[in-house]
Amino acid sequence: MKIQKAFKFRLNTKRKDTSKLFQFAGCCRFVWNKCLASNKLAVKNKQKIAYYQETSFWLTLWKQSEEYKFLKDCHSQPLQQSLKSLGRAFKDCFDKKQPLKKFPRFKNKYKSSSFTFPQGFKINNNQVYLPKLGWFSFRKHRSIQGNPKNVTISYKSGHWYISIQTEQTVATPIHQSKTMVGIDVGIANFATLSTGEVIKPLNQFRKLENKLAREQRTLARRKKLSNGWKNQKTKIQRLHAFIANSKSDFLHKASTNISKNHAMIVLEDLKVRNLSKSAKGTADNHGKNVKAKSGLNKSILDQGWGMFRQMLEYKQRWSGGDVLAINPRNTSRTCLSCSHVSKDNRTTQAKFECVSCGYSANADYVGACNILRVGHTQLAC
Ligand SMILES: [Zn+2]
To answer: Which domains does the chain possess?
Structure first.
C-alpha cells in the first residue's frame, strides 16, 4: 500500500534570501491570477476553460514578451506547477463527487505566498537545495519518512516554511481493534459516539471573534500600506494562524483517538457545503432567516467537520480501518427501543422522547446509535 505524508518545518532565512523567495511566490501568484482571470471571463462568455496544456503555452509567450519578461527571473517549474494546480482546481470544482471544492480564487499578496518544486530539489539532513535559490537549512524537529516527491515553500505570519511531501510503500496494516462505532456530529456537542462518549466543541473562533473584529477595525482606521497598517495586518494574520492551529490540533486529537479505538467508523454523509450555502439568497430572492442561518453557518464552518472526516479517512487508511458514510435519513427520528419513526420523537434539540413507547434519551446519542445501526445493515447487504 502506498501512503503519502507531508512534513512541515520552519525555514531558516536571512533577509537577503527572503526577497528572492517573495519574488518567486509573486511570479507564481501572477500567472495563477492572470490565467484565472481569463478563465473567469471564458466561463462568463460560455467559452471553453483553458487547462494546463494551453496555459503553459501562454506562459512561454509571456516570458518572451517585453511586458512580462520578469517571469524569467523565476524558475520555470514552480510557475508550471502553479498552472497545473489551477487546472486541477478547475477540474475539482466542476466534479460533482467533490461537493466541498469551490471555484478557484484570486491569490492575494497578503494572504498567500507559496510555490512548489515538483523536482530538481535536494534534501540533505536538515538542508534543502532549491533550484535557482540555493541551499537553505530548516528546523528539523522530526524525521522524514518516505521518498520526497515535491517541496512547497510558503510564507505565513512572518515566517517561511517548507513542506516536504513524501510517498512510501508499506505493508497493508491490520487494525488492532475490531469494534465499530457510529458518530453523530452536532452544534451543541462536536461529536457524540454510539459508545456514549461525547466530544465537546472547541469554540475558539467564537471567543476570539470579538478580538479579531476589534483588530480589524483598527486596521480599517490605518492608512493603507503604511507601516502601522502593515504591523496591524501581521497582528491579524498571527491571530488567524493561532485560531487555525488550535482548530487543527483539536481535530487531530479527536480523530486520532477515535481512529485508534475503532476499526470501522460510521458517519452521516452530510453535505457540509449544502448546509453552509450562503444565507443571503439571491438578489430577487432574499434568503430566509439570514441572521439565524449565518450564525449557524459560522458554527458549522468553525467546527470543521469536513476536515474531521478527511482526517478520520486517512488515519483509518493508514491503520487498516475504514470509514463508512451513510444516508442521514431518519437517523435523528427513529426510536432505539421500538423503531418508531416520527419527527415528534425529537422534542427539543437535545432530547429524544418516543411518542409510541416513551423511551427517552439524549438526542445526539440516539442519532449516533442509529447511524451505527444503519452502518451494520449496509455492511450486511
Ligand atoms: Zn419507541
So the answer is: 2-169 (no CATH), 180-201+238-380 (3.30.420)
What is the CB neighbour count within 10 angstroms for residue 220?
Answer: 10
Residue 220's Cα: distance from chain center in Å? Answer: 28
CA of 367 to the centre of ligand 1 (A): 14
CB atoms < 10 A from the CB of 378, how many?
13
Query: Residue 246 and residue 350: Cα distance in Å, rounded?
Result: 27
**CA 65/CA 232 separation, integer angstroms:** 38
pLDDT in the model for residue 109: 83
> CA separation (Å) from 148 to 122, 126, 219?
9, 13, 41
* Ligand 1 centroid distance, CA of 346 (Å): 11
Rounded-to-integer distance, Cα 248 and Cα 50, Å: 35
For the segment 36-48, what is each residue's pLDDT rounded down to a tens digit?
Answer: 999 999 999 999 9
SS3 call for 57: helix
- Residue 11 has phi, psi (to 5 degrees) of -90, 140
- Take residue 292 and report the three cell numbers written for it: 439565524
Q: For residue 143, list its beta bridge partners.
A: none
184 an active-site residue? yes
Q: What predicted TM-score, i.e. pTM, was given to this entire model?
A: 0.74
CA distance 107 to 194: 42
Question: How many angstroms is it from 328 CA to the middle of ligand 1?
Answer: 19
Angstrom distance (rounded) from CA 357 to CA 379: 29
364 is catalytic: yes
- What pLDDT is recorded for position 336? 93
Tallying the residues shown for the chain, one arrives at: 381
- List, for residues 313-362, the tens digit of each pLDDT value: 999 999 999 999 998 888 889 999 999 999 888 888 788 999 999 999 99
CA 305 vs CA 175, 270, 281, 362, 367: distances in Å: 24, 9, 24, 21, 16
Which one of 17, 66, 95, 184 is the catalytic residue?
Answer: 184
Question: Is 284 noted as a catalytic residue in this protein?
Answer: no
Half-sphere exposure of 373 (CA within 13 A, CB side): 16
Burial of 334 per CB tally in 10 Å (0-12, 13-18, 19+): buried
